[in-house]
Design brief:
Number of strands: 10
Strand content: 25-35%
Helix content: 25-40%
Largest sheet: 8 strands, mixed, barrel
CATH class of the largest domain: Mainly Beta
Radius of gyration: 23 Å
Order of helices and strands: HHEEEHEEEEEEE
Distance between the termini: 99 Å
CATH superfamily of the largest domain: Sortase
CATH topology of the largest domain: Sortase, Chain: A
Number of helices: 3
Strand order of the largest sheet: 2-3-4-5-8-9-7-6
Number of domains: 2
Length: 228
């Protein structure tokens, strides 16, 4: 009887062990699939972005003209209705890079689940790079924005688009509640706001948000009222 109970216990244990082994393999396969898809997307979009005629033309013009351009700084529009100049959903915005952190990621429109699995997302209703106002970008803390935990004040952040390259300097690092949407409010200046979940090492749905605010330093901006 004892032998039978022992064998029965061993059999149950083996079933449980193999079940969790199969579950672990399935999770690993899913993670690998998502990681490979993300890497392929980033590689393809980065290559196509660099090959775009507008991008090639901008690079050639930039190489032949070393002068610093001046971009008008106007008031951010409060009317965010779609216009021909705005990207369609899932459209590619450009490339985000932070040289000191060796971080580089393609940015596309939207913050839905699919978008944030593949790229950094441009937050709808915020300005686009090159426009006056607050450019909002979001990313996952365990993928593209993992390196933000090592970001420092005055670090350079670059955003490259088909319209040109824009450089920002970090001026504040904040930790806010998930509902702290004021960090995405319109601004009379050209600023960039990066948002991700916090703490970075938290397991599960993180309770806070890590916010990076940076000010545009290149191209130079001047008040529209001061221009003739």
């Amino acid at each position: 009887m004892r032998l039978r109970l022992f064998l029965s216990g061993v059999a149950i244990w083996n079933v449980v062990r193999y079940f969790f082994l199969a579950l672990a393999i399935a999770c690993l396969g899913l993670y690998s699939s998502v990681t490979i898809e993300r890497a392929q997307y980033q590689h393809y979009e980065s290559r196509e972005f660099d090959r775009a005629p507008a991008r090639v033309a901008f690079a050639a013009a930039d190489a032949s003209d070393q002068s610093m351009p001046v971009v008008p700084l106007g008031r951010p529009s409060t009317n965010r209705a779609p216009s021909p100049g705005l990207p369609l959903p899932a459209a590619l915005i450009g490339r985000l890079s932070i040289p000191r952190l060796h971080l580089s990621a393609m940015v596309r429109e939207g913050i839905d689940r699919t978008t944030l699995q593949l790229a950094v997302g441009h937050i709808p209703a915020t300005s686009l790079p090159g426009q006056a106002g607050n450019v909002g970008l979001a990313g996952h803390r365990d993928t593209f924005f993992r390196g933000l935990k090592d970001l420092r004040m005055a670090d350079e952040i670059r955003v490259s688009t088909l319209r040109g390259d824009f450089s920002y300097r970090v001026e504040s690092l904040l930790i806010v509640e998930p509902g702290g949407i004021r960090v995405l409010a319109n601004s009379s200046e050209n600023v960039l706001t990066l948002v991700t979940c916090y703490p970075f090492s938290y397991i599960g749905a993180a309770p806070k948000r890590f916010v990076v605010r940076a000010r545009q330093v290149s191209p130079l901006t001047v008040a529209e009222s001061g221009m003739e």
